[in-house]
Design brief:
The protein is of the alpha+beta class and about 280 residues long. The chain contains eleven helices and 16 strands. It has one domain (about 5-275): 2-Layer Sandwich (Nucleotidyltransferase, domain 5), CATH 3.30.420.
Length: about 280
């Protein structure tokens, strides 16, 4: 059987996927038929300098991503990779300066330091029915009580923060030079108005920050080219390939399993346990 040159070329093309998890980064190479060609995983720690604190060093996460990417490319030429896509743990919080560098370690979803702020917010949160706008209950994993904690304990960091982002926003900003947050990941902050699809000004103002301190919003299939820089140098990936913004690991698990209709449920057991079911409204 004759194989056309175009068919041979397409069979050699690969998609690189990066899952930024809580305790590790998982990287896969897929061919265009959807078959997995290589996988790798690198672990990184969560630090607890005080009770209820759960912090991570973004440079350790970046190093883990680079290590895993290099591992999957050790037997496949980087020139075969035609696109890169990301997903991420939800509910991470990171304050950046104007250079895009952290002002404070990353808070992941396990951080519960804002319990006192949570209690003081409860009455206002219920009275203003924020849940029916953002779809999330009042909880320590969301940004509102966390930002109020920063306002109380590190006001200069919050005031001087250029942007308030998630770990995926930071990573993609560093490797593309473009700063956006997809709707899926944004919904995990608890500050997204689900109906207007924008940062909710009233919610944000409760933390005494500005919507200008949050990134422009985009669809998960939004993409920009990979720029020349430390990441291309460290991994061998070719500059210019499209980097797809992706979204949150939980919602994407439902999508990947085809469980996105009412009364269909996905149970995920990893660093956390989660049960997720889709509905039309909160």
């Amino acid at each position: 059987m004759l194989i056309r040159e175009s068919e041979l070329m397409s069979s050699q093309e690969l998609i690189l996927t990066i899952d930024i998890g809580t305790s590790s980064c998982k990287v896969c190479l897929f061919d265009l038929s959807g078959a997995i060609r290589a996988t790798a995983k690198s672990e990184y720690p969560t630090l607890s300098p005080q009770p209820s604190f759960a912090e991570q060093d973004v440079s350790a996460i970046y190093s883990g991503i680079v290590q895993s990417v290099k591992a999957v490319l050790s037997k496949h030429s980087p020139s075969r990779v035609i696109a890169l896509a990301c997903d991420t743990m939800l509910h991470s919080t990171l304050l950046l300066d104007e250079e895009g560098d952290p002002l404070y370690p990353l808070l992941n979803w396990m951080d519960t330091r804002c319990q006192d702020e949570l209690k003081s917010l409860n009455q206002e949160y219920q009275e203003k029915r924020f849940y029916f706008r953002n779809g999330v209950p009042l909880h320590t994993i969301y940004n509102l009580p966390r930002l109020i904690w920063f306002r109380k304990h590190y006001p200069s960091f919050l005031q001087s923060a250029w942007k308030i982002v998630t770990i995926k926003d930071w990573f993609l900003g560093k490797i593309t030079g473009e700063w956006y947050c997809d709707y899926s990941t944004a919904s995990g902050t608890g500050l997204l108005n689900l109906f207007d699809r924008r940062w909710d000004e009233e919610l944000v103002s409760c933390a005494q920050v500005s919507t200008k301190q949050f990134l422009p919003l985009c669809e998960p299939d939004h993409h920009f080219p990979l720029q020349v820089g430390p990441f291309t140098h460290d991994t061998g990936l070719l500059p210019g390939i499209p980097v797809v913004w992706g979204g949150g690991d939980g919602p994407f698990a439902n999508l990947g399993e085809g469980m996105f209709h009412q009364r269909e449920m996905v149970i995920t057991v990893g660093s956390s346990g989660a049960v997720r079911m889709c509905d039309h409204q909160p």
